[in-house]
């Protein structure tokens, strides 16, 4: 007779703990980063094809569905920004200043501040570009 | 001793992660929401003539190429390493699906950008 060993199911394991849920959400942002890269890739491919092809694609990007998709993408990217710097104290080698380890909060804070500054700079650059 | 290729992929993951974490959200907002809606920025900023002029310049080409390729390598590496947690066996097929698509996308972006000319 076959012994029926109990095997604990792993289905939905990550829903058991809020820490796991945050881990899965953090990893899942990668999918949205890829989606945006794919949109940009189609944009440059259409650009290379010529004006008619490009304009048809841009008309699609100006539609309601695309704007809604980009709103989701912005939220996912913002979450990625937050989590990227939240875990940075654990993912980067420790920095020692005068023999003391740099506090995790400082690393996260500096990262978020740099992101904010670069984002404002990017927006200013886009505004300054000749129309 | 055979050298591991892992540091290369890890470096691309890190570079893409950093670029997307610092500029990503704003870039998506500008190209996908602000410009199509004419919010704060002129709607023709991403018009054909502007986009061609931007990408004829080497710096424009480099920027778009870096964004597309690094975002793809970041995503490929991260998705590949979390496949197991999502209940997908990470075998040879998934290596090709993740890194292969990132490579194809990188080549396609390079080809499209070069064909725009300088």
Could you explain the architecture of this structure?
- The complex is a heterodimer of chains A (131) and B (118).
- Chain A is mainly alpha-helical and 131 residues long.
- Chain A contains 5 helices and 2 strands; from the N terminus they run ααααββα.
- Chain A has helices spanning 18-49, 51-61, 64-86, 88-91, 104-128, and strands at residues 96-97, 100-101.
- Chain A has a two-stranded antiparallel sheet with strand order 1-2.
- In chain A, helix 1 (18-49) crosses helix 3.
- The termini of chain A are far apart.
- In chain A, 22% of the residues are buried.
- Chain B has 118 residues and is mostly helical.
- Chain B contains 4 helices and no strands.
- Chain B has helices at 6-37, 48-56, 58-82, 92-116.
- Chain B is globular, with a radius of gyration of 17 Å.
- Chain B starts with 5 loop residues before the first helix and ends with a helix.
- Classes of the chains: A mainly alpha (131), B mainly alpha (118).
- Chains A and B meet through helix 1, helix 2, helix 3 and helix 5 of A and helix 1, helix 2, helix 3 and helix 4 of B.
Descriptive keywords:
heterodimer, A: mainly alpha, two-stranded antiparallel sheet, 5 helices, flat, B: 118 residues, mainly alpha, 4 helices, 77% helix
Write the layout of secondary structure elements.
The complex is a heterodimer of chains A (131) and B (118).
Chain A: H1 18-49, H2 51-61, H3 64-86, H4 88-91, E1 96-97, E2 100-101, H5 104-128
Antiparallel strand pairs in A: 1-2
Helix pairs in contact in A: 1-2, 1-3, 3-5
Chain B: H1 6-37, H2 48-56, H3 58-82, H4 92-116
**Class derived from helix and strand content of chain B:** mainly alpha
- Report strand % of chain B: under 5%
Quaternary assembly: heterodimer
Q: Provide the gyration radius of chain A in Å.
A: 22 Å
Q: What's the total number of strands of chain A?
A: 2
The largest pleated sheet of chain A is described as: 2 strands, antiparallel
Per DSSP, the total helix count of chain A is 5
Helices and strands of chain A, in N-to-C order?
HHHHEEH
Shape of chain B: globular
In DSSP terms (H or I, runs of 4 or more residues), the helix count of chain B works out at: 4
Roughly how much helix do the residues of chain B carry, as a percent range? over 70%
Q: Tell me what portion of residues of chain A adopts beta-strand conformation.
A: under 5%
